[in-house]
Amino acid sequence: MPGTGCHSGDVRILVVGAGIVGAALADRLARQDEVTVVEAEGPGAGTSGTSYAWINANDPEDPSYHRFRTEAMSTWRRLAAEFGDPAWYRPSGHTTWAAADDAKTRLADRVARLARLGYAAEPIDPGRLRELEPHVQAPPDALIAHYPDEGFVHGGPAARALAERARESGAAVVTGHRAVRLTTEGDRVTGVRLDDGRDLDADLTICAAGRDSPALLETAGVALPLVDPSEPGSAAPCLVATTSAAPGVVNGLVHAPGLSVRPAEGGGLVLEAVDLDAGVDESASPALIQEVGTELLARARVVMPGLTAEVAEMRRCVRPLPVDGYPLIGSQRPGLYTAVTHSGITLGPHLAVLIDQEVHGHASPALDAYRPDRAGS
Ligand SMILES: Cc1cc2nc3c(=O)[nH]c(=O)nc-3n(C[C@H](O)[C@H](O)[C@H](O)COP(=O)(O)OP(=O)(O)OC[C@H]3O[C@@H](n4cnc5c(N)ncnc54)[C@H](O)[C@@H]3O)c2cc1C
């Protein structure tokens, strides 16, 4: 097992966290190893259950990361097929548009660059938008683009399904208990202490605790460069709205200027707008949260003029945001492996495949750019 200080073969592995990253890992590793998952609440209860959860490789800026993400999209397709194309996996396609001149130029450039990379990206006309999303209205002079291979998941059910399959493969899934610290012998991490005082020992402890990872790693003196959500102006804290039932109002992911929308798990819509998160921190007042909900709904009614749904729930959440934006994946100490990333919904299952290989002695060059100790992180 490169860099972890363990031997390949049947290994006692402890996964801390059952969001999409930890649950996908447990599902993969439990096929061969003795796996225990420790989850403070329940699978999918963290960021994964609130995420906008768009599966994509929609940024051509870094071709190598783009390719990594297209591979992750393929891994999702294979995983969903194993589950018999479950309701929590929605390969719905994604439609977006730009209205202002500079935004149109940027969108046209993005579509052209993505298409050159072999990614399914195409400009469409208003008639095609009406076919794809009959209840959605773009300005008449908008530049509209469609990405047919993108989609989304319902993060909570997806994490629960993966954790359940891990359990069926023999993993022990301990829920309702927090790992309060890593346990160590010299330099080696030997497991975790739980909040009830129990010690769980392991040959390899994998930290997949999302936004809470720095706090856990710090207990063994290990640093992780995640954006601190308590810093003023931090981009990590955010608000996501779900609406009451809005059947058939959108079919897939829609990104309008100032609004992201997609179908929600319970028949409503998920609404999000990154610019409205600017003033949000972890102590956001109920008045501010309500104000953001009202604005999201107002924007939604412009994009979907027939929308009668109301905001049913506002959820506050924190993005696990690496300082340079890229995944943080790899061994940080003997006996300790870290798997923390933004875009964890897109990347989780693919990371699980690659980490499974690393745990069993096959270093994955695809992960080399994303080691937690890389320069600049
Ligand atoms: C608003 C928003 C929109 C997003 N949009 C997208 C998107 O469109 N596409 C995309 O790919 N990604 C997106 N992301 C990012 C993505 O959601 C995350 O990267 C991903 O959910 C992280 O998954 P995770 O399993 O690492 O973390 P989590 O889902 O947070 O799981 C970590 C789990 O660990 C548990 N835990 C924490 N500490 C401990 C401990 N000490 N002991 C035991 N258990 C512990 C928690 O209870 C939690 O369940 C978005 C995020 C947000 C907030």
Automatic annotation (TrEMBL):
GO annotations of cellular component type: cytoplasm
Can you provide one Gene Ontology molecular function annotated for this UniProt record? Answer: oxidoreductase activity
Q: For the FAD dependent oxidoreductase domain, which residue ranges apply?
A: 12-355
UniProt keyword list = Oxidoreductase
| Alphabetized InterPro entries for the sequence | FAD-dep_OxRdtase (IPR006076), FAD/NAD-bd_sf (IPR036188)
Top-level taxon of origin: Bacteria
Query: What's the protein name?
Result: FAD-binding oxidoreductase
